[in-house]
Amino acid sequence: MHISITGRLGSGKSTVAKIIAEKYGFEIVSTGTALRNIAAELGMTALEFNKLMTADPKYDYMIDNETKRISIERAADRIIYDSRMAWNFAVDSFKVYLYVNTAVSAKRIMGDGSRGSVESYSSFEDAVKQINDRMEEENYRYRMIYNVDNLDLRNYDCVIDTEFRDCDEVAELIMSEFSKFCEDREHYRKFFLR
Question: What is the number of domains present in the chain?
Fold first, then answer.
């Protein structure tokens, strides 16, 4: 079975996925990396590219169809998806949502130099605004294209607030809950907030 991690910008999805990959032998499939690379090739910011994707959903279809294909063809492999929509497209996955409030998200993202020029901010206030705008734009797009609400926490098997947990702790918590989920999926439903 696979694990799909989604969540708010700056919640630690990529870092947690890397920890799980290294410690537990999972392969990461990251749609965010793919999208940032495409945005950079087009000379756009992440927000500009999201607006383009709203006007032309071909990029969403391309990435989400690939996620579904991988989940079917490689069902026996240990894969963790770092993706906004894998929870909806990976045929059989433990669906995890990482939550963090926008102010914490902005501080984390502004301090993350790995995001490149596609995610740059002139101030903390600008970061908060762009993060909120991007989340709204993405969720609007998902509702229009797929009729799903990415921010509805009922879509997920496990929700974790990452504000007061470090990424190692979050990774361990995910793996512990993943084990419980695999043992008794029928009765599993657990949320962790703060």
Answer: 1
